[in-house]
Amino acid sequence: MSEPVLILYTTLGCHLCEQAKDELWPALTQTGWRLEEVDIADSDSLMARYGARIPVVARSDSGAELGWPFSSGEVTGLLEG
Predict the structure, then answer these.
(1) With 0-12 CB in 10 A as exposed, 13-18 as middle and 19+ as buried, what is 47?
(2) Region of 32 on the Ramachandran plot (φ > 0 left; ψ -120 to 50 alpha; else beta)
(3) Which of 77, 42, 43, 41 is nearest to 57 (CA)?
(4) Helices 72-80 and 15-31, packing angle to 10 deg
(5) 0.90 cut: is pTM over it?
(6) What is the pLDDT of residues 59-79, one digit of tens each?
(7) What span, in angstroms and rounded, lies between the C-alpha atoms of 80 and 44?
């Protein structure tokens, strides 16, 4: 069975995305999830969906999302939910 994946929608030069990663790491470390970063600039549809609201994290299995700002506790809740 593969490890679960949390997707971080981001783009180059996004300082909020760097802050978001700082909040993500404790929860990811504790729960065994893997982080996959997706650059929204590579897709017109992702730009349309997330352009004004990145960073956004999403579970790869259920698609449940959490938009910035979020705390590490909220991320843990997303991963456990």
Answers:
(1) middle
(2) left
(3) 77
(4) 50
(5) yes
(6) 999 999 999 999 888 999 999
(7) 31
Residues 6+ away with beta carbon under 8 Å from 71: 23
Q: Which residue has the tokens 């843990």?
A: 76
Rounded to whole angstroms, the Cα distance separating 54 from 72 reads 17
Phi-psi region of 70 (alpha: psi -120 to 50; beta: other; left: phi over 0): beta
**Count of beta carbons in the 10 Å neighbourhood of residue 43:** 13
Sequential pLDDT tens for the chain (81 residues): 577 899 999 999 999 999 999 999 999 988 889 999 999 999 999 999 999 999 999 999 999 999 999 988 899 999 998
Which distant-in-sequence residues (6+ apart) come within 8 Å of 43 by Cβ?
none
